[in-house]
Design a protein that fits this description.
Helix content is 80%, strand content 0%. It has 412 residues and is an all-alpha fold. It has one domain: Growth Hormone, Chain: A, CATH 1.20.1250.
């Protein structure tokens, strides 16, 4: 069985290749901004609740905007929509830079960071789901597993390079250096989408004259009736809500390793490194058909990784546990992505991908908030340990409650 990920989509589809390269470059900059947001708030407040509040600022507009944005993506040219949203994101990153340049870590101006995080989240809630619909349009069905694995390689590159580079840059130039690099990185996003063919709505899609509420209700109804989609989304929320303690990273880094920003950057980079190994070696994915079971197993390993992270006494074990969690997460996301792309009709693709985005991003933001609040009440270690164990228990509960998802097989 071939071990390495198949790169046929990159060879045979120039449009997919440009999208893959451009998105990866832009996402590295976005990861640097996320790192800088957390570090800027932590340096100003030294509060896990305050860093967890970044998740609230991101989550609220995400929940409000993403699903209506998915309905919009089903009625307009998705390429034009993504280009407009990318331009808006560039402006927001420039404002992050100006704010950091003028105010630094002044506590009184931290509200500006929260406000810009909210605006960036609202823009991304429209941009990312629409961008995700491109993959199915650019590659044939038999190349979809390989395309999703390649997409994950780009994401893991962002997880590794973004935080690691952000740790070095912030240590040398402060968080304003991270924000400036993010502004420049959006050139990659424009490169990836600018030459892409138009992506008009399907002939079977919905008319722009229909109300957003009607479109949204129809899309949610489809997801609710499809037990495979519902199971994939619930499994992912279980993992990210209980076991994604990003808001605890600064506190644990301070308690165990002296608060060095370079070490903090290694935490997220370790997750990315583990995910990169499994993404590069995802060749067997195209032969695996029990995607529901595979997701549940991967979710359990993810939870176990963070449970070990919570009690690891040394830096090497801490990073190893995070790497194992990252490796499991790659399979979770790849299988969820294949399920979403495979079982969703074209006319629902924008709305289902918007729901997928809410699950992936919203669950993580809720998890960051949950872990930050529990860490403030109890301790960061207890919060991370409990979250990891609850994730494992949740995977078993989902397997029992949704047998259709557990038995799902990919048939194409």
């Amino acid at each position: 069985m071939k071990l390495l990920t198949d790169i046929t989509p990159l060879r045979e589809s120039p449009a997919f290749r440009r999208l893959w390269i451009g998105t990866m470059l832009s996402n590295v900059g976005t990861a640097m901004t996320s790192f800088a947001n957390t570090l800027q708030v932590w340096d100003a407040t030294h509060s896990t609740a305050a860093t967890g509040a970044i998740a609230v600022a991101s989550l609220i507009p995400l929940l409000v905007i993403a699903l209506p944005g998915g309905s919009l993506a089903d009625t307009v040219d998705r390429r034009k929509l993504v280009l407009v949203m990318t331009a808006c994101s560039t402006v927001v990153s420039a404002l992050f830079f100006v704010n950091a340049l003028l105010t630094g870590t002044a506590v009184g101006w931290i509200w500006v960071v929260y406000a810009l995080v909210a605006v960036a989240s609202a823009i991304g809630a429209v941009n990312q789901p629409a961008r995700q619909t491109f993959i199915r349009a650019l590659v044939p069905g038999d190349q979809l597993p390989a395309a999703m694995a390649l997409n994950r390689i780009a994401f893991q590159t962002m997880l590794i390079a973004g935080p690691a580079l952000a740790g070095v840059v912030s240590g040398a130039f402060g968080v304003k250096g991270c924000y400036l690099i993010d502004v420049l990185s959006f050139a990659g996003s424009f490169y990836g989408v600018g030459r892409m063919p138009a992506q008009p709505p399907s002939d079977r899609g919905d008319s722009p004259s229909r109300s957003q509420l009607s479109l949204l209700r129809e899309g949610l109804g489809y997801i609710g009736r499809n037990r495979i989609l519902a199971g994939a989304f619930i499994a992912d929320v279980n993992a990210t809500f209980f076991a994604l303690p990003v808001s605890l990273f600064p506190a644990i880094n301070t308690e165990r390793f002296g608060g060095d920003p370079r070490t903090l950057g290694l935490f997220t980079a370790a997750i990315g490194a583990g995910g990169m190994v499994t993404a590069v070696c995802a060749g067997p994915v195209r032969k695996w058909t029990r995607h529901g079971v595979a997701m549940l197993v991967a979710v359990s390993v993810w939870g176990a990784g963070f449970a070990v992270f919570a009690v690891a006494p040394s830096l090497w074990l801490t990073l190893l546990a995070l790497a194992v969690a990252g490796g499991a997460d790659t399979f979770t996301v790849i299988f969820r992505g294949i399920i979403v792309q495979r079982v969703t009709p074209e006319e629902f693709r924008g709305r289902v991908n918007a729901a997928d985005f809410v699950v992936g991003a919203g669950g993580g933001q809720l998890g960051s908030l949950e872990s930050g609040l529990v860490g403030a009440v109890a301790s960061p270690e207890i919060s991370a340990l409990a979250g990891g164990l609850l994730t494992i228990a949740g995977a078993f509960a989902i397997a029992g409650a949704l047998p259709a998802f557990r038995r799902y097989r990919d048939t194409e």
